[in-house]
Design brief:
The complex is a heterodimer of chains A (about 250) and B (about 400). Chain A is α+β, with helices and mostly antiparallel strands and about 250 residues long. Chain A has helices spanning about 10-25, 75-80, 140-150, 200-205; strands at about 5, 25-30, 35-40, 45-55, 60-65, 70-75, 90-95, 100-105, 110-115, 135-140, 155-160, 165-170, 175-180, 190, 195-200, 215-220, 225-235, 235-245. In chain A, the strands form three sheets. A nine-stranded antiparallel beta sheet of chain A has the order 6-2-3-4-18-17-16-10-14. In chain A, helix 1 (about 10-25) runs antiparallel to helix 2 (about 75-80). Chain A is elongated and about 55 Å long. Chain A starts with a strand and ends in a 5-residue tail after the last strand. The mean pLDDT of chain A is about 90. Chain B starts with a helix and ends with a helix. With about 400 residues, chain B is of the alpha+beta class. The radius of gyration of chain B is 21 Å and the shape is globular. In chain B, helix 6 (about 170-180) packs antiparallel against helix 7 (about 185-195) and helix 9 runs parallel beside helix 10. The longest helix of chain B has 20 residues, at about 220-240. Chain B has helices at about 5-10, 25-30, 80, 85-95, 115-125, 170-180, 185-195, 200-205, 220-240, 310-325, 350-360, 370-375, 380-390, 390-395, and strands spanning about 40-45, 50, 60-65, 100-105, 130-135, 155-165, 240-245, 245-255, 255-265, 270-275, 290-295, 325-330, 330-335, 365. Chain B has a six-stranded mixed beta sheet with strand order 1-5-6-4-3-2, covered by helices on one side. In chain B, strands 11-10-13-9-8-14 form a six-stranded mixed beta sheet, with helices on both faces. The chains are: A alpha+beta (about 250), B alpha+beta (about 400). The interface of A and B includes residues 47 and 48 of A.
C-alpha cells in the first residue's frame, strides 16, 4: 500500500478524526478513487458511522497505481498527534507498507512516524430506512441543543412534524422542552410527516466536536427507528451517524 | 431532622451535603463501636499500617498505626483474611488499631524528615514491625469509618515513634521505592505483576513511596488510584481476548449483602450497581430501596463515577477474572445491601467479595434475558435493576 494525502483544512480533518475516535478505537478507512470512506459500527452496536471525505476535501490525494486500499487509524494514537494541529497548519500523511508518516507543517515542521497498520476488515451491516421527516439546521444550533440537554438528562425525545422539531428531556426533578422551527429560524429546512424516537445523550454528546468541520446538519426521523444525523462536509462529503432508539 | 435519603447516598460522609458539620451516619456508627482502651503510650506490632488523612490537604496528617499487641499482627491489614471473619471480629480488630498523627506537607515525601522517613520505611515492610508510640495526649475514640477505607481506631498527636527491626522489603518494592525516574503508574503495575497485593501498593503510594514527583497521597485517594490504574491496564489487555461463549451468572451472599455478576458475550462494557435498603449504611433514613448505577462503555469513562471507589474495586476484581481466563465480556455487577449491614467497611469488602463471587461456579444461559429471568428470583429489587441498568437498556437498544 502506498498513499499520500495532503489536507489544508486541518482543523476540520482533526475534528472528523476525533469524532470517529469517540465511537471507535480503531477506524478502517477505505481509500479509493472517489475519496476516503469509513463505515463501521461502534463497539456497543448502538451507533453506525458512515463517513465520506471526497478527493476534493484534500489538497492532494494520491493512491499508488490508483488502487483502493485500507488505512487503519488508531484513534488514541492519531488523536494525540492531531491535538498538536493549529489553524493554518498543513497535514501530509504518507503511508507505505511499513510506516505511516504524518507531517504537520506550520510555524515549523513536525514529523511523526508510526507503524503502518492494516486490520482485518469485516463487512458492516447496512441500514435501509425510509425517513418520513427531515430537518436541516446549522451545526451550531444542533450543538447548542445537545449542550442544553446534556446537562439535565440522559435521554431525549425527538419529535418531528408540521414544520418543527420538538426536543424533550426529563429527569426525576424537571422536564425540559425546546422547539426548533422554520418560524423561529432555528431550522433552515423542514419537510415530511411525523417522526419520533428517544435517543441517548451519551452518544449525541460525542458529536459536538464536528462543529468546525460542518456548517449544516440534517436530522432524519422515522417511527422509533434509528435516528440519522447527516453532517455535510466540504467538497460534498458527509459524516453520518445512525443511532439506535432507546428501548427502555 | 429529616434527611433526603438520596443526599446520603451521594455524599457518603465526604461532602456533608445534608448541611450538618458532622455525618450523622458516621457518628451513629461510632457510638455503636466497641470502646477500645485508651493508652498514652503504646507498644505493639504494626501490621504494618499507615493512614494518611485528607483534611487540610496539602498539609495532611500521617498516622503510623498499631494495635497494642506484639507478634504477628499481619491479619490486621489482610483483606484476604477479613473476608472470612465475622463483622464483629473484623470491627473489634480494626477499631483497636491506634494511630499516632503527625502533620506534613504532601511534597515533603520527596525529601522526608527523619520522622517521615521512618513512616515510609515502616510502610514498605512486608511483615509486622515492633513499634513504640508515645502520644502527646491520650488517644480519643475518633474512629475512621469510611466507605473507601477499612475502619481504624482512636488517634492522638504523636510525640515519638520508635521502630524495632524492620524486615527488608522485597527487591521489587525496593526497586520501585528507590527509582526516582519510575512513574507511579509504572511502579503500581510492576508491584502488582510481581504479586504485591493492592492494599500494600496503595499504602506505598500513600506515603509517597513511588513516582517521579513524590507526594503523600491521602489513603482514601490512593486506594481508588490503585484500583483504577491497575484495572485500566487489565481492561486494555482483556480487549484483545476472544468474546465469552455464553452468558454466565454468579451469585454470592455474604453478611447481608448479595453480589451478582452477569458476564455477557460481547465487547467490554461494565456496570456497577448498588441497592441500599432502608436502615443500611447509606440509606439509613430512607423509606425505599435506593438504587445507584454507574457504567462505562467500550472506551471507558472520562468522569469519576458518582458511586465512588467501589466502582473501581469491583472493576479490578472482574478484570482480573477475565484476564486470567483470557476472555472478553460485557459485565454487569450488582450488589444488594439488606437491613442490618449498617457499617461502611471500605472498598476492600467489594473487591474481595467480587473476587470470591467469580471463583464460584456460574449458571450459564444462551441469552441475557434468560439470565435476567433466573436472577429475578434471587434479587429483591429485580424490577429496579432491569429498568435502571445501563447495559440491559443498551442491549435492548442495539442497531443489530
Amino acid at each position: 500500500m502506498r498513499m499520500k494525502l495532503k489536507v489544508v483544512d486541518t482543523v476540520a480533518f482533526r475534528q472528523i478524526v476525533e469524532t470517529v475516535g469517540e465511537f471507535m478505537d480503531e477506524a478502517n478507512f477505505l481509500l479509493d478513487n472517489e475519496g476516503m470512506k469509513l463505515r463501521g459500527v461502534e463497539e456497543s452496536r448502538v451507533a453506525l458511522l458512515d463517513v465520506f471525505l471526497p478527493k476534493a476535501f484534500f489538497q492532494s490525494y494520491e493512491l499508488d497505481g490508483g488502487e483502493s486500499d485500507y488505512l487503519t487509524l488508531k484513534s488514541e494514537e492519531i488523536g494525540n498527534i492531531l491535538k498538536k494541529v493549529k489553524k493554518g497548519d498543513i497535514i501530509t500523511i504518507n503511508v507505505d507498507e511499513k510506516l505511516m508518516k504524518i507531517e504537520l507543517d506550520g510555524e515549523f515542521l513536525r514529523t511523526y512516524e508510526i507503524p503502518s497498520l492494516k486490520s482485518k476488515v469485516s463487512g458492516t451491516p447496512t441500514i435501509n430506512v425510509q425517513y418520513p421527516f427531515k430537518a436541516r439546521m446549522l451545526t451550531q444550533s444542533f450543538n447548542e441543543l445537545i449542550d442544553q440537554f446534556n446537562v439535565i438528562t440522559d435521554v431525549i425525545e425527538l419529535k418531528g412534524g408540521e414544520g418543527k422539531l420538538t426536543v424533550k428531556g426529563e429527569t426525576e426533578m424537571m422536564n425540559m422542552e425546546m422547539e426548533l422551527s422554520l418560524e423561529n429560524g432555528l431550522l433552515l429546512e423542514c419537510e415530511g410527516s411525523e417522526g419520533m424516537g428517544r435517543y441517548g445523550m451519551e452518544y449525541l454528546s460525542k458529536l459536538v466536536k464536528v462543529s468546525n468541520a460542518s456548517d449544516v446538519v440534517n436530522i432524519m426521523l422515522g417511527g422509533n427507528v434509528p435516528l440519522k444525523i447527516d453532517y455535510e462536509l466540504a467538497g460534498g462529503g458527509h459524516l453520518d451517524i445512525y443511532l439506535a432508539p432507546r428501548a427502555d | 431532622m429529616k434527611v433526603d435519603p438520596g443526599t446520603c447516598l451521594r455524599c457518603r460522609a465526604t461532602k456533608y451535603l445534608c448541611g450538618l458539620t458532622y455525618c450523622p451516619v458516621t457518628v451513629k456508627m461510632s457510638i455503636l463501636n466497641m470502646r477500645a482502651k485508651i493508652y498514652e503510650e503504646l507498644s505493639g506490632s504494626s501490621p504494618p499500617s499507615v493512614f494518611v488523612g485528607r483534611f487540610n490537604y496539602p498539609k495532611v496528617a500521617v498516622y503510623p498505626s498499631a494495635p497494642p499487641l506484639g507478634g504477628d499482627t499481619s491479619r490486621y491489614e489482610d483483606p484476604k483474611l477479613w473476608i472470612s471473619m465475622s463483622l464483629d471480629e473484623f470491627l473489634a480488630m480494626r477499631l483497636s488499631v491506634f494511630r499516632g498523627g503527625q502533620s506534613f506537607r504532601v511534597e515533603q515525601a520527596s525529601d522526608p524528615s527523619r520522622d517521615l522517613w521512618d513512616v515510609q520505611t515502616l510502610a514498605l515492610s512486608p511483615r509486622p514491625v515492633e513499634v513504640e508510640m508515645k502520644f502527646k495526649e491520650p488517644p480519643k475514640t475518633m474512629n475512621v469509618i469510611d466507605d473507601t477505607l477499612p475502619p481504624l481506631g482512636p488517634s492522638a498527636p504523636l510525640d515519638k515513634l520508635r521502630l524495632g527491626t524492620i524486615p527488608p522489603p522485597e527487591k521489587v518494592v525496593e526497586k520501585v521505592f528507590s527509582s526516582q525516574d519510575m512513574k507511579a503508574i509504572e511502579g503500581m503495575r510492576l508491584l502488582y505483576t510481581s504479586g504485591v497485593g493492592v492494599e500494600r501498593i496503595s499504602r506505598i503510594l500513600s506515603v509517597g513511596g513511588m513516582g517521579v514527583d513524590r507526594k503523600l497521597v491521602p489513603t482514601r485517594w490512593s486506594i481508588t488510584a490503585v484500583d483504577k490504574t491497575l484495572s485500566d491496564q487489565l481492561v486494555k489487555e482483556l480487549k484483545e481476548f476472544d468474546i465469552l461463549d455464553n452468558v454466565e451468572v454468579y451469585v454470592r451472599e455474604h453478611l447481608r449483602n448479595l453480589f451478582v455478576a452477569m458476564l455477557i458475550p460481547g465487547n467490554w462494557s461494565f456496570e456497577w450497581g448498588e441497592a441500599w435498603f432502608p436502615r443500611t449504611a447509606w440509606n439509613y433514613w430512607g423509606g425505599e430501596v435506593a438504587v445507584e448505577i454507574d457504567h462505562e462503555g467500550y472506551s471507558g469513562r472520562k468522569t469519576y463515577p458518582e458511586i465512588g471507589g467501589c466502582y473501581y474495586a469491583s472493576r479490578l476484581a472482574v478484570a482480573e477474572h477475565l484476564v486470567k481466563r483470557r476472555r472478553q465480556a460485557t459485565v454487569v455487577l450488582w450488589r444488594e445491601t439488606y437491613p442490618g449491614f449498617f457499617f461502611p467497611v471500605g472498598v476492600w469488602f467489594v473487591r474481595e467479595n467480587v473476587r470470591k463471587l467469580l471463583e464460584g461456579r456460574p449458571e450459564t444461559f444462551d441469552t441475557v434475558w434468560e439470565a435476567v429471568e433466573y436472577l429475578s428470583s434471587r434479587l429483591k429489587v429485580s424490577r429496579d435493576w432491569t429498568r435502571k441498568s445501563w447495559i440491559l437498556n443498551l442491549m435492548r437498544s442495539r442497531l443489530f
